[in-house]
Amino acid sequence: MRLGAATALLLPASLYVRGWRDLRARVPERLPPWRLAAFLGGLAVLLAAIASPLDGLAERLLRAHMAQHMLLLMVAPPLLLLGCPQLPLLRGLPAWLRSRVAPLQSNVALRRIGETAAHPLVGWTALAAATWGWHLPAAFELALRDDAWHAVEHACFLAAGLLFWWPVVQPWPSRPRWPRWTMIPYLLLADFQNTALAALLTFSDRVLYPFYAELPGVNGASALDDQSAAGVLMWVPMSILYLVPAGVITLRLLSPRRPITRSARPFRSAPAPPPPPGRARSRTSAAAP
């Protein structure tokens, strides 16, 4: 499974690199090298979440499982979106396939679906639904005991993360649906619901997921201790990942706009200097009758 996941991630990586190189030559200011690094970094985080030893450890420790969720929901999606992947991935397709896919962008029904999916309310609701829905004991246990449902769980977290972070990152060439300042309460409210669930896991006096109680403890830790550690992991690092972007947006909104420098001002021809006084008088007297 790990080899299959790594192979599957090579396809979007190769498509993106090919499309990025082509578009970089045309609009270098839109796709600097750091965007390429961000997208490839997002794919690397996905690989670490689903095809590394962390995946096997998640079957024994709830805190490792929680780390998986954090990578899929909070780390990989914003990195992928910072790469502005829409146009590079499209441009990276073979010409014969791109000619068939590109016209779909003008399809009215598909555009409406895309606009609806990119709405902040949809993104926030998707995040809350995935966070709380998959942490219900019945759903969590189902994912732990069935590999197919475990894959569905991971796909839901990744999809919810992409929908949630879309209006925050606002990848080019998309346009925002809400004013930029609204992303501050958007992130803070997301952190609030995350904190509520994290506190429930941290301070619960009983094991919420019996699957882990059936396993022998790792390094002498009980299932309840593991559950508390998972709650702390969800509480602190994930809160930081919500609060740092909110702080950055706040600082940018409060910072004064840069004044227009002399070199950035529109070019205007300088007025001609006035003639010397003596020469002006001579011309005037010469012109007199």
At a glance:
The chain is mainly α and 289 residues long. It contains 14 helices and no strands.
How would you characterize the overall build of this protein?
The protein is mainly α and 289 residues long. The chain has one domain. Helix content is 72%, strand content 0%. It contains 14 helices and no strands. The chain has helices spanning 2-26, 33-50, 53-57, 62-82, 86-92, 95-101, 108-117, 120-133, 137-145, 147-169, 183-203, 210-213, 223-254, 277-287. Helix 8 packs parallel to helix 11 and helix 11 (183-203) packs antiparallel against helix 13. The chain starts with a helix and ends with a helix. The model is unreliable at 260-270 and 279-289 (pLDDT under 50).
Number of domains: 1
Mean pLDDT over the full residue set: 87
Per DSSP E runs of 2 or more residues, the count of β-strands stands at 0
The helix/strand class is mainly alpha
Strand percentage lies at under 5%
Shape field? globular
Q: What is the distance, rounded to the nearest whole angstrom, between the alpha carbons of the first and last residues? A: 103 Å
Low-confidence stretches are 260-270, 279-289
- Secondary-structure element pattern, one letter each: HHHHHHHHHHHHHH
Largest sheet: none
What proportion of the residues is helical, as a percent range? Answer: over 70%
Radius of gyration: 28 Å
Tally of helical runs: 14
Record the SSE blueprint:
Layout: H1 2-26, H2 33-50, H3 53-57, H4 62-82, H5 86-92, H6 95-101, H7 108-117, H8 120-133, H9 137-145, H10 147-169, H11 183-203, H12 210-213, H13 223-254, H14 277-287
